[in-house]
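Exercise 7. Given the encoded structure of a 314-residue chain, write a plausible sequence.
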């Protein structure tokens, strides 16, 4: 049987994209192509990662590119291209700029990697996933957005710090849209098998939920330029690895819903089984009244974002 190494392309060689490329190569999940409109940045960073491989001894190939021909036949394509939030740029401006970037990238991906599983990272995430799916025309199994793993990682981190325990033993679930309407689910957070509400007061849990909700902003303020990239990249890598190794991991991801949780025709963060085909299944879970209301509010926010695309003619 012929052996073929997996191929992963990362579109956008900025902070998130380059960190993804480094982590993917370091985990040896396949060969990586890093592509950017600034071809020099992609080629320079790819070369730098390859030289790190010489020291850290990983054998993935890493190639920098400016042309989609080099990404042809990818198993997974990660889209991080776009413009970051900048002072003076309105929300609508950013939506319009990144919509153009995503549509352009997806037109090329459709031609060059028609069988790929595409993972969208660019913000505003739920709207960019919507555009990506429309442009790609791929089945819902092969278009996913990265958000829930990152949001849950933030919540897990704060719980672990609060309790002074290893983050390894903290499991959490965050649903809904990516951003401040996300829905952390404390009832579904377990610390070494014990439900979080048995370990912390409702007041402390509320403080940690709020910090997780604002987790991205906290980092933006500290950095002054740019936004978080290590944890976002690590979250992408977990999704990509689940696909490339057909792990059937249960991970919170933005998925196109077709009636699950009472929602259709939108990307919303839900618990997904991720395997070799991409989305294998959406796991529907029971919610109590408060959770259901928060989820419904979050879905309304995602729908408003998608309506903005129509309003702006995008
Ligand atoms: N095609 C390819 N690359 C592009 C394109 C395009 N059409 N447009 C922009 N890029 C590249 C830029 O040249 C830049 O290298 O995308 C990269 C974006 O990198 P950064 O500005 O460093 O942004 P980053 O921090 O990586 O975030 C990327 O992920 O988490 C989200 O909100 C974040 O939407 C943002 C995205």
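Solution.
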């Amino acid at each position: 049987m012929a052996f073929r190494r997996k191929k992963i392309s990362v579109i956008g060689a900025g902070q998130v994209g380059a960190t993804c490329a480094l982590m993917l190569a370091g985990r040896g999940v396949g060969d990586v192509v890093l592509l950017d409109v600034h071809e020099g940045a992609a080629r320079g960073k790819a070369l730098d990662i390859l030289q790190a491989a010489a020291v850290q001894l990983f054998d993935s190939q890493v190639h920098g590119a400016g042309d989609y021909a080099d990404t042809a036949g990818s198993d997974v394509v990660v889209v991080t291209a776009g413009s970051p939030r900048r002072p003076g740029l309105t929300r609508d401006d950013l939506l319009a700029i990144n919509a153009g970037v995503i549509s352009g990238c997806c037109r090329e991906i459709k031609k060059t990697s028609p069988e790929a599983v595409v993972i969208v990272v660019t913000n505003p995430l739920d709207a960019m996933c919507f555009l990506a799916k429309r442009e790609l025309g791929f089945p819902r199994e092969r278009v996913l957005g990265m958000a829930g793993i990152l949001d849950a990682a933030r919540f897990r981190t704060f719980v672990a710090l609060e309790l002074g325990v290893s983050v390894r033993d903290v499991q959490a679930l965050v649903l809904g849209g990516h951003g401040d309407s996300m829905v952390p689910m404390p009832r579904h957070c377990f610390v070494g098998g014990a439900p979080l509400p048995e370990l912390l007061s409702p007041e402390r849990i509320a403080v940690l939920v709020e910090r997780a909700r604002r987790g991205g902003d906290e980092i933006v303020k500290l950095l002054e330029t740019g936004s978080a990239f290590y944890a976002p990249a690590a979250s992408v890598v977990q999704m990509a690895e689940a696909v490339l190794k057909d792990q059937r991991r249960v991970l919170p991801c933005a998925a196109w819903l077709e009636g699950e949780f009472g929602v259709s025709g939108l990307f919303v963060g839900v618990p997904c089984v991720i395997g070799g085909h991409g989305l294998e299944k959406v796991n529907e879970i029971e919610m109590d009244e408060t959770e259901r209301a928060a989820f419904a509010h979050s879905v309304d926010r995602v729908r408003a974002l998608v309506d903005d695309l129509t309003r702006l003619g995008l």
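Remark. Residues 11-17, 36-38, 41, 80-82, 84, 101, 104-105, 121-123, 226-227, 229, 232 surround adenosine-5-diphosphoribose (CB under 6 Å). Students should compare their own answers with the one above.
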